[in-house]
Amino acid sequence: MSEEFSMLIPHNQTENDVAFSRGMETYFSHSLGTNMDKLRNFTKFVPRQALSQFLAKNELFKHVVNIHGHIIECGVFLGGGLMTWAQLSAIYEPVNHVRRIVGFDTFTGFPAISEKDKGQNPDYAVTGGLATRAYEDLQEAIRLYDLNRPVGHIPRLELVVGDAIQTIPQYLQDNQHLVVALLYLDFDLFEPTRVALETFLPRMPKGALIAFDELDQAAWPGETLAVLETLGLRNLKVQRFPFTPQLSYAILE
Ligand SMILES: C[S@@+](CC[C@H](N)C(=O)[O-])C[C@H]1O[C@@H](n2cnc3c(N)ncnc32)[C@H](O)[C@@H]1O
Fold first, then answer.
1. Residue 42 shares a structural domain with residue 52
2. pLDDT per residue over 84-130, tens digit each?
3. Of 49, 101, 110, 214, best ligand 1 pocket probe by most atoms within 8 Å of the beta carbon
């Protein structure tokens, strides 16, 4: 297990879960073939939970493919979600050179945890929690992504670095044309989620999607509180997929 992110092992893991993670670390490094062979045979290695999340995001993307506008990833962390939207866009709409997938993150972790975020938080719910070197790492992921898709000379991904409480309003200021088709809320925290909802909602047409990573989660009450304070839950039909527990979404009417 990578030391850097071992803090992310949830507390509710069983011995089998821990044995699976440890076993997979070793198996992946020692398994047959080159790294590319392993990646092409990814179903041998990828945890079922990650595959389920990917399938759920695929369903969201299939809805959004017919909705005009950008995809906004609120909280990038290591970039798995961001690159999911990027890959799906390259697969389903290779020539859509208008769509951008925009990721917001400090890349230095949580700027602050407010009173509204206090709940049954995990240990990494502290200032600086989830800090990564992902910004530099993602530059190479994006370069390779662009090599492997049609119209790769027109960028499809943007990373916006800094505290989203400031960078989100600034982004709108700098991009007066912005329309949002999918707002993926995964900051974990109240204040940036509130700012994202207040800033982007007026730019979302009917049929656009808001997706929630932490709605109704005791570990991160801030996301639910931000939704209550902006949209209100009574105005939303919050739906989910039976095969993945965390993700929920609503189609704007
Ligand atoms: C749960 S992670 C995001 C996971 C990511 N969506 C994925 O698919 O793996 C939450 C991220 O939100 C970022 N974050 C939280 N508050 C923020 C803020 N005010 N401004 C910018 N980024 C913030 C953290 O740095 C962290 O990387």
1. no
2. 999 999 999 999 999 999 999 999 999 999 999 999 998 899 999 99
3. 110
